[in-house]
Amino acid sequence: MSQVRAMQGFGWLAIVRLGAVQASIGAIVMLATSLLNRLMVVEYGLLAAIPAGLVAWHYAVQLTRPVWGQGSDKGRKRTPWILFGMALLGLGALVAVNATILLASAPIGGLLLAILAFTMIGGGVGAAGTSLLALLASGVAPQRRAAAAATTWIMMVAGIVVAAGVAGALIDPFSEARLALVASGVVASALVVTALATWRLEAQALPMQAARRDSPVPDFREALREILQERTARRFTLFIFVSMLAYSMQDLILEPFAGLVFGMTPGQSTQLSGMQHGGVLLGMIAAGVGGSAFAGRLPGELRSWTAFGCLASALALAGLAIGAQVGPGWPIEANVFALGFANGLFAVSAIGSMMGLAGAGERTREGVRMGVWGAAQAIAFGTGGLLGALGVDFARRAQGHDAEAFQLIFAIEGGLFIVAAWLGLRAAVRKKLVEAEVAGT
């Protein structure tokens, strides 16, 4: 009985422990991308382009994810890479705090220190996040992948919410000493949680990994060449990029849309954003439960859920485009909730599909493959929000009407989601054909 349980890989407790690590990553990232962003613009009176550029840079650094993944593939364990990445991420966050304080008195020195800090943050997220996903992919049984993806991502969102709430409560009244103390507390807590969560955890997945570890690991160039030559992996990489580009384009324009077109106050638009995130969480739960319950019974399995989530997102965006013309009176709250729910469906099922394809390489292992897809996601997230905001600005100036400008961008987003659904289904069909050919031989 114990041998059978071992061959099933991680149990639910182990998945929750890895979710705690994901929550710790989210908590530290929140400091850099949310709290310090606000402090730079409001308390220190800096141009908004400075924190925006630093956040974009940390996404650019995550192009190194395949390198981190290859390193964890070559190592005997992934846990040391997770711990190293978390340490680098935490140190980068503390350096970013000092850089923020320095920017007010020594702009050039502070900016250089901030660039170094966000380089460390991007590298830490890449090393820890890629190795964590690779460990999940290699240690979770196929029927649990959807639920595992949902659990870890829900816990990441919970980590961001809890850290933001605690940090926000403790930092008032604001002072630089309080900022340093609160940031140190968040980082220290995240590192302790990570160390406890990963303690002797990887051994539970070793029986599932044994066959893979017996084969030699190709070098980095050979691994990339195999992934790029594999049609399913190539199509899935394109799917990740297109879908995440569509997903991130709405980040910076949804609240301005609510204010400019529907006349919502800042408090009302913030509540609307909270409603969207509530929909995302429920969509993640639905994808996790449904994907696990129907694993192996539906054509394309998780990729069918992914395509459905993309198409539902496109439909919700079509509703927002119509609402831009209708204006007040349109059920904007229900529409935004539906968009969040559809986004949650596609995001979790996409991560589950990613975990399933990560172990499908002939020689490449989970780390480098997760790294390639993580890099595609980072590029999409780094450019999607910027393109959405710039697109609205350009359209508003060109057309002279706010409603038509947002309508155009929502239509483009919806089109991207439709393309992503097509790409996801093509990858699913290709995988089924390959499996049929193998079975026939």
**General form:** globular
Quaternary state reads: single chain
Computed CA radius of gyration, to the nearest angstrom: 22 Å
Number of helices, counting only DSSP H or I runs of 4 residues or more: 17
Q: Remind me, CATH topology of the largest domain?
A: Growth Hormone, Chain: A
Number of strands: 0
Strand content: under 5%
Overall CATH architecture of the largest domain: Up-down Bundle
The whole-number mean of residue pLDDT values reads 82
Tell me the domain tally: 2
Poorly predicted runs? 1-7, 296-300, 432-441
- Which CATH C-level class of the largest domain is it? Mainly Alpha
Q: Provide the structure class.
A: mainly alpha
Order of helices and strands: HHHHHHHHHHHHHHHHH
* Fraction in helix: over 70%
**CATH level-four homologous superfamily name of the largest domain:** MFS general substrate transporter like domains
Strand count, sense and closure of the main sheet?
Answer: none
Distance between the termini: 33 Å
Top keywords for this entry?
Growth Hormone, Chain: A; mainly alpha; disordered C terminus; disordered N terminus; 441 residues; globular; 2 domains
